[in-house]
Amino acid sequence: MNGGIEWIIDAFDCRPAALRDGQAVTELMLRVIRDADLHVIGQAEHVFGGAGGVTAMYLLAESHLTIHTFPESGVATINLYCCRPRPALPWQELLSRSLGARTTHVRELQRGGAALVEVSGSVAGSR
Amino acid sequence: MNGGIEWIIDAFDCRPAALRDGQAVTELMLRVIRDADLHVIGQAEHVFGGAGGVTAMYLLAESHLTIHTFPESGVATINLYCCRPRPALPWQELLSRSLGARTTHVRELQRGGAALVEVSGSVAGSR
Lengths: 127, 127
Fold this sequence. Notes:
The structure is a homodimer. Helices cover about 20% and strands about 40% of the residues of chain A. By secondary structure, chain A is of the alpha+beta class. In chain A, strands 2-3-4-5-1-6-7 form a seven-stranded antiparallel sheet, with helices on one face. In chain A, helix 2 runs antiparallel to helix 3 (about 90-100). The interface between A and B is large, with 41 and 41 residues.
């Protein structure tokens, strides 16, 4: 594996108010950064305001972490890309607690490995 | 589809010197932004220096664009996430010209749609 590992996380049936709340989203991101022992070297965030969502990204010594939220459909999408392997986080638990997600779908991609790369997905059940 | 579309691009057998060159990587990113009519609302970049690679990310009105380069293995990994559908870019041509990539692997993921989401991949051949 030459390019690290990326987790692609889609959370469904979240609380729309949480998806519009920049502070709630920031707290979730900081929790992920702390729990996964990541190191931030740059960041940007934007709260679209009104009925819009929140978008944030962190450039990491280990690669990157991003989130986009879609209050109108109750969806949050997260990418966590680590250039070195590390254990998966308990995404369903994290996203249920922070955003009220009822279902979380996690895919794990190898990056920059063989030209055709294994893709695996899992769905964590409803609360 | 509630969460947009993401292209996961892995480029192989690139020129190591190009993968260490912050300016070359920035020019590639700006080309992608222009060609795909994207709108930047935040950005961060880091050149690791010496034998290290370059990492850059752009927060977009349309979601995000990231790149990480690995000169030691000739690999560059790019994510382009757009919350609204748009045509795929000619990645093999772009990455061959800018980074000397001999092979480019592109996967297209739907985000935030059905809980189990279609994944498709393609490999563009050698020069």
